[in-house]
Amino acid sequence: MTIAKAMHNIEKNLALVQNKIKQTARDFQRDPNKVTLLAVSKTKPVSDIEIAYHCGQRDFGENYLQEAEQKIIALRDKNIIWHYIGPIQSNKTRKISELFDWVHSIDRLKIARRLSDERPANNSPLNVLLQVNIDNEPAKSGIQLNEILSLAHQIAPLPRLKLRGLMAIPAIHKDPQQQRIPFAKMRQALTELQQYCPDCDTLSMGMSEDMQAAIAEGSTLVRIGTAIFGARTT
Ligand SMILES: *Cc1c(COP(=O)(O)O)cnc(C)c1O
Question: Does 225 sit in the ligand 1 pocket, CB within 6 Å?
Fold first, then answer.
């Protein structure tokens, strides 16, 4: 695809997604400014991120550390907020703690401890979310709903992390009413977590195919790849 064509598509797609977020928030009596758009740029080139950045997009999400590192270095003069949303191996925590502003995929204490220990002193604390395997799918990472509070109690005191809330990737459903069921459970789980952690203000849920259901159930951050950058071929 030529650069001009990519620019046109990404610019147009971003505007469509932003409008959909705003309209859905209004439909469900929510403040449209309380839903952050995270542009998921995994497998997409630096030039695509630059186009979205040029359109005002500031939050970007990546899943693969090696790929992300190259992009973050290439774009280091830009004012980007980087979110790590992929699975975390313990030998990758140092780089993740150095490169990112947020990590959405915390599912065990060992990883959280390492990220806290390794977070550079000159950076602000790393914002973290606990990933919940909301539909109990064997192939997906994440903790169970009934494990949230105990893990939160262990992670909240870690000095170089800031616990901000929860993240989930539900099983795929086409029906919007079905899509809302796991998101409603997540909303309830965040409310319970907030009794203990009043600073937990973030519910990371909703992707290209289910963002409206997620916003209806209180998502504060939708993670959108395909609807902005097009289908991934790799
Ligand atoms: C890839 C990915 C997304 C984006 O998915 P789309 O369907 O392309 O919008 C969101 N969240 C996570 C964790 C992902 O891995």
Answer: yes
Residue pair 177/216 in contact (Cβ under 8 Å)? The answer is: no
* Whether residue 224 has its Cβ less than 6 Å from ligand 1: yes
Mean pLDDT (the chain, rounded): 96
14 occurs within a structural domain: yes
Q: Check residue 3 and give its pLDDT.
A: 67
Nearest CA to ligand 1 atom 6: 225
Residue type, 230: G
- Is 234 among the domain residues? no
pLDDT at 169 over 80: yes
CATH number at residue 31: 3.20.20.10
Q: Tell me the angle at which helices 176-196 and 148-155 cross, rounded to the nearest 10 degrees.
A: 50
Task: Compute, in angstroms, the gap from residue 68 CA to the centroid of ligand 1.
Answer: 15
CA distance 181 to 170: 9
pTM, entire model: 0.97
Q: What digits encode the pLDDT tens for the residues 56-75?
A: 999 999 999 999 999 999 99
Q: Which domain holds residue 33?
A: 3-229
**Does the beta carbon of 221 sit less than 6 angstroms from any atom of ligand 1?**
no
Asked whether residue 63 is assigned to any structural domain, the reply reads: yes
| Nearest ligand 1 atom, CA 104 | 13
The reply to whether ligand 1 has any atom less than 6 angstroms from the CB of 226 is yes
Q: CA end-to-end span of the chain, whole Å? A: 16
Confidence band, pLDDT 50/70/90 cuts, at residue 15: very high
